[in-house]
Amino acid sequence: MNTTIWIFIVILAAILGAVAGFFIARRSMETYIKNNPPISEEMMKSMMTSMGQKPSQKRLNQMMAQMKNQAQTSSKKK
Q1: Burial profile 29-62: b = 16 or more Cβ within 10 angstroms, e = fewer
Q2: What would the pLDDT profile of 30-64 be if each residue is shown by its tens digit?
Q3: Membrane-spanning residues where (predicted)?
Q4: Disulfide-capable partner of 53 in 41, 48, 59, 69 (CB 3.0 to 4.6 Å)?
Q5: Are 28 and 52 in a shared domain?
Q6: 3-class SS string, 23-43
């Protein structure tokens, strides 16, 4: 009986640790992505140039604001 209780406790602790680890990792990744967006203005500028568009600062600011707004909207839905 004593061994069965220990096996149950170990399995329960492993499950709880996996669930807690998942949520902690998810929250830390969301914070990291929010603070360090994957696309910077320089990357956006080079993409627009490679597509044949002449990037103006106003257009870059609009696109960055749009991406930031989209990221905030998608995080609120979750």
Answers
A1: eeeeeeeeeeeeeeebbeebeeeeeebeeeeeee
A2: 898 888 777 788 888 888 889 888 888 888 888 88
A3: 6-25
A4: 48
A5: no
A6: HHHHHHHHHHHHHCCCCCHHH
